[in-house]
UniProtKB/TrEMBL annotation:
InterPro entries: AAA+_ATPase (IPR003593), G_ENGA (IPR031166), GTP-bd (IPR006073), GTPase_Der (IPR016484), KH_dom-like (IPR032859), KH_dom-like_a/b (IPR015946), P-loop_NTPase (IPR027417), Small_GTP-bd (IPR005225). Residues 1-10 have a biased composition (Basic and acidic residues). Residues 77-240, 251-424 form the EngA-type G domain. CDD domains: EngA1, EngA2. Associates with the 50S ribosomal subunit. The gene is der. The keyword Iron-sulfur does not apply. The keyword Phosphoprotein does not apply. Gene3D superfamilies: 3.30.300.20, P-loop containing nucleotide triphosphate hydrolases (3.40.50.300). GTPase that plays an essential role in the late steps of ribosome biogenesis. It comes from the Bacteria. GTP 2 binds at residues 257-264, 304-308, 369-372. Residues 1-23 are annotated as: Disordered. This is GTPase Der.
Amino acid sequence: MTDETARPIDEGAPISTPDHAVDPVAGAVGAPELDDAAVERALRAGLDDFELSPEDQALLDAQGALSDDGAAQGPLPVVAVVGRPNVGKSSLVNRILRRREAVVEDVPGVTRDRVSYEAEWGGRRFTIVDTGGWEADATGIHLRVAEQAEIAIDLADVVMFVVDATVGATDDDEAVVKLLRRSGKPVVLVANKVDDQRGEADAAMLWSLGLGQPFPVSAVHGRGSGDALDAVLEVLPDVSAHGAYAQGGPRRVALVGRPNVGKSSLLNRLAGSERVVVDNVAGTTRDPVDELIKLGGKTWRFVDTAGIRRRVHQSRGADFYASLRTQTALEKAEVAVVLIDAEEPIAEQDIRVVQQVIDSGRALVIAYNKWDTLDEERRYYLEREIEKELVQVPWAPRANISARTGRHMDRLVPAIETALESWDTRVPTGRLNAFMGEIVAAHPHPLRGGKQPRILFATQASTRPPRFVIFASGFIEAGYRRFIERRLREQFGFEGTPIEVSVRVREKRRR
C-alpha cells in the first residue's frame, strides 16, 4: 500500500469528526472540561481492552526520569607519548588502552594531531595523549605536526619518549631529548620493537641518551609494557597540573563534514589557537581531536573529526579507521555541526553526512562556511540548492559563518543551544495525548478496506533524541506518520533534533 493512495491531508480544512473517525474517549479530547491529565487517564483505561506485551506495560509504567551524566570529574593526570615518526607511538597507545583506538598503519606520519584518550593502569586513571612524529628539520605540514607534539609536552604531567630500539638513537631522537630536558617534565624512556630477549641488548644502548633506564617494550605483542606503565605511575601526580584534558561536564559538539570544508580551521578559530593541523591537503585530520572551549559563557567540548569522504566499507587503510573513529566520535557527541562549503554546490557527500547525523540520533546544526567569499549570485543559487537538496531537514538551525575570518561565530552557540534544548525536550503524556486527539479529530486516518485504524494512546519513550510510541488499533501509513511528525514539530518545536515516531498495532482482548 503506497502513500500516494492515501487521501490528501488538507491542514487548512475545517475540523470535522466523522462518526467512524474517533472512539468516544478520543472524541472527547477537544472538550474544554477535560484537562490533559484526565485525557491521559481515560485513554490509559481504554488500553485495558487491548492485548499488551510486557514491553508495552513496562513502557507505560515508566516514569520517564532522565539520568544525569553526573558531575564533572576533576582533571586526570596527563601522559604524552612522543617520538619521531613510525617508532610505534600509536601502537603503544592502543596497547595501553587495550583496544585498537588510535589509527595505526605501517607508513610514517599517519598520526598528525595530538589525540587524548582516557586510560587505566593499576587502578589509576589518566589521560594518554597520542602525538604526531617529531622531526627536527620538518617543513610544511610536518612542521605543524611537530608543533602539536611540542604543545602536548607542554600540557603533559609525564612524557613517554618512544625510540625504535632496532634503529637506535638518531639525530632526531637527540633533538627530542633536548626538547624534553628544556620542558623539565618527568620522562619514561620506552625502547620499542623489542620482540624477544635478543633485542634487549639494543635497548640497553639507549642509556646513552641520558634519560635513565630504557624500558624494553614490544607494543605489538605487549611485551614489557606493564613495566613501563609502572614506571609512569611512580612519577604521575593524582591531578593534572594543567587540566587541559578534563573529562565530563561540558556538552559535546562534533564538527563533521566532507574533507576540506574547514572543520579544523573552525576549531582553531573557536579555540583561539592553532589547536589542529590545518593544510589545503584534503584528509589532513585522521583522528578525532577534542578541545575544551569557552563560548557564550559556557564551556564546550568540541571534537574535530576526519572528513567523511565515502562510505566506510569503501575506504582503505588509515582512511578506513579514520572513518570508523569519526562515526564513534559522532556517537559520543550530543550535537553535530555539519560544515558545508558554501563556495561549492551542495554535494551528495554533504547530504550523506547530514543523514549520518540523523541516523545516529544526534542534534543537528548546519553551518555554511566561507560565507564571506560569496557574491549575490552564488548566495541566490545556494538558497535554491538548500531548498532542493536539504528538503528533509528544514528543522535544522542554520549558521552562515567564516572560519577564516571569524565572521558570525556568535551565531553558532545560540544555534547549538537551541538544538540541544530540543534534543532534551520531553512532552508530558497528558498534553501529548490531548494533542493527538486534536489531530485525529481534525484529520482522521484514511479508510482502508472499510476500516479505520484508531490511535489509542501515545507516549514519549525517551529523549536524546525524542522518541514517540503510538499504540493503534491498526496499521498507520508512513504518510500519516510523517504528518504526525510535522504537526509535533509545529506544536512543540523540536528545532535542531531528529524525532522518531513508531507505531505498535494492538488487537482487542478476546472475550
